[in-house]
Write a structure and sequence with these properties.
2 domains, 43% helix
Length: 320
């Protein structure tokens, strides 16, 4: 059994995948398997994959019908046998010592999850993005506080394999599945470690998911409504209500609203109505939540309304 399984979903990345796989082949950590899942890619990505599989015995290739990134990751999870799981997107690349540093940290105190910082590469510029896990977390109360402020991506972390099961696989057929699965996992993470170094290079491209502005942005709301159902189903809701409430409001009134500000105004207005109605339905008394403080972010969330949304829309339109 390898110590780490790294899952790489592949779709239409023949221009970038060589750099990704090369960075994984050069890992200083030897006891690692690389699980590459070709999600029905119509380009020549598989030819590149085949070259690495022939050259490196720890590289494994699988081809499946197209089902989206979440589907490919779930397929990889079923094939993985590592003690820990990592995820790398096929148009990104990692530092040569990434998995050695994360694994050594994980084993130092038996952490369930270990996170690192990220190099964000965009338009030829590089910026370090913090994981927002500023110190090791060893208690449930610390973990609950971390829920309200962390970088919600799966690829800057490694995870104990037993965290994943049929209840905590990626939600398929939606965008923003990273956010959805991480909030499912949080109640089951007892200890989280951190490595305060940027060990993964996230290349943000114009056609990437985060730059896709269409009706799929409503997946933010659908995913969070599903998370409420998940916490209720598993008798976790009462214990985590305040964290869920704060995060729900933040993602709906901030992240979702920012995304839909690219819509024509009539569609934006409809999206604002949907956001407000959902918050009122699930958390009508959210303004009493203990996590709100005097910060500008909290003031925005506490006072969000249709007029504020309209002003925000036209300010953002002018800034583009």
């Amino acid at each position: 059994m390898p110590k780490i399984s790294v899952i790489v979903p592949v779709y239409n990345v023949e221009k970038y995948i060589d750099k990704c796989l090369d960075s994984l082949a050069k890992q200083t950590f030897e006891d690692i398997e690389i699980i590459i899942v070709n999600d029905g890619s119509p380009d020549n990505s598989q030819k590149v994959i085949d070259n690495y599989v022939k050259k490196y015995s720890n590289f494994k290739s699988y081809i499946k019908e197209n089902g989206g990134q979440a589907s490919a990751r779930n397929y990889g999870l079923k094939k993985a046998s590592g003690e820990y799981i990592g995820f790398v997107d096929s148009d990104d690349y990692v530092e040569n010592n990434m998995f050695e540093k994360l694994y050594n940290k994980a084993k130092s105190q038996d952490f369930d999850v270990v996170a690192c910082d990220t190099n964000l590469i965009q338009n030829g510029q590089t910026m370090i993005i913090s994981s927002l896990v500023e110190k090791d977390i060893n208690t449930k109360e610390e973990m609950k506080k971390q829920m309200i402020n962390f970088y919600p991506v799966v690829w800057n972390k490694i995870y104990k394999r037993e965290l994943f099961n049929k209840e905590t696989y990626f939600k398929e057929g939606v965008l923003f599945e990273d956010v959805e699965i991480l909030y499912k996992l949080f109640p089951y993470i007892k200890k989280m470690g951190t490595v305060k170094e940027p060990l993964i290079n996230y290349v943000q491209r114009e056609n990437s998911t985060v730059n896709t502005f269409d009706n799929r942005l409503y997946d933010y709301i659908d995913n969070w409504n599903g998370l409420i159902d998940f916490y209720q189903k598993h008798n976790l809701y009462d214990e985590y209500k305040e964290e869920l409430e704060y995060c729900y409001v933040r993602y709906v009134y901030a992240t979702f609203i920012k995304g839909v500000s690219n819509f024509p105004y009539a569609k934006f207005k409809k999206a604002v109505d949907t956001a407000i109605n959902n918050v009122k339905s699930h958390f009508p008394n959210y303004k009493q939540n203990k996590y709100f403080d005097r910060s500008p972010k909290s003031k925005y969330l506490l006072n969000f309304n249709k007029l504020m949304a309209k002003i925000l829309y036209y300010k953002m339109k002018l800034s583009r």
